[in-house]
Amino acid sequence: MTAMNHGADNTMDHELETAGRGTISLAGGVAMGTGVMIGAGIFALTGQIAELAGPLFPLSFIVGALVTSLAAYSYIKMSNAWPSSGGIAMILQKAYGPGVVAASASLLMALSMVINESLVARTFATYALRPFGLEENAFLLSALALALIVFAYIVNKAGNRSVSGFSLIMSAIKIGGIALFAVAAIAASGFFSGAFAEPANITSGGAFLASVAFSILAFKGFTTITNSGGEIVDPHRNVGRTIMISIAICVVTYLLVAFAVGSSLTIGQIVEARDYSLAAAARPALGQLGFWFTIVIAIAATTSGVIASVFAVSRMLTMLTEMKMIPHRHFGMKGPIRGHLLVYTVVIAGTLAVLFDLSRIASLGAFFYLVMDILVHWGVYRHLRNEIGAKGSVLLAAIAADGVILAAFAGVKLDSDPAIVVIAAVLIAAVFALETLFLRRKRVADGNDHRDANGDESQPPSNGAEN
After folding, report:
1. 434 in a domain, yes or no?
2. What is the overall mean pLDDT for the chain?
3. Angle, CA of 401, 404 and 405, to the nearest 5°
């Protein structure tokens, strides 16, 4: 299967790799990856993880990091062999060929990234409104979330170097600020206080495993690096380094914050303030100044997270469009396809930010990502592991870990919120069904366009009608 259409694949690889080659440094790539991860993981998901895992919620971050490191193995091996912009789509295409599985799984990844944008945008709005007691105002939440998404569009429109430079500055500010907050909060409250003074029990082992689904979602921003692989300086060497450095930075940051929040608040208080748990923890530990400091850091973190995510998902959708795996319409817009998809990305993210709350946005993103991740590992194991020198045992371990966590997460959600499980299942099925229909029609159209009545090849149309 991997042999199909190699000539076209190689041409596409070259075009996509050279489009923005060398515009993102190693530091810039790390900043983009950590920007997406920290934006979602700390400020949007800490409370939801604590709700499931109880006082053991810091351990959930550790397990999530281990599972993510297993998952990163496939992406690093593939990116070292074939670095390209929109890399996950290319991984799936090489594993499954340009068919329904590759297109559908790639679209699930893109949708999970768009969901992440809306999740972090709403988190930004919640923290921005918290000092004024307006975080429950639905209109203001939606308006501020949309404003951040529009700002992310403007920064991305300015070009790769603007995104990389902005992400680098913001990441340095927020990582340093979060670390300072965490150390100060732990010192002020004492390590064995708050949630850590409570009995170390959880609802069930299944609930703890379900919490790891959110922890994995907090780390999945490393795929931002994979999706921009062709634009990183010396990608064969730096993509893997960038991914592992980003994961290492984030696990240390997450643990610091988890201990800071847990030492300042009880589990009940964390869950009650789960949309703004860091701000809630800062006030009793550090007073009003600490509260405002945390608000500023949260705004910086979520802003850079949305910018980095918009950058990556627009590149991935461009890849899918160039590979003719998803339909595309210009709707009267001028300029390159990448510019159009940048618009579509922020429109979809803005719509989700208005329509859904944080809990359901995060749950939907976890379902989409875990299904896609399993398909990536299976495709690499089944078709490419010998070609790229990957160990089958590591790939199977990644599949097993994802499968166990997905099953546990679905089980917990069936008890607490069965509607979101149904919504996720219907949407995943719809993605596969619509891709099947689109690709079938495309094959028919290509057959009519490229063959005359005698079955001889003719010149393909030059007007891009297939898009």
Report:
1. yes
2. 80
3. 85
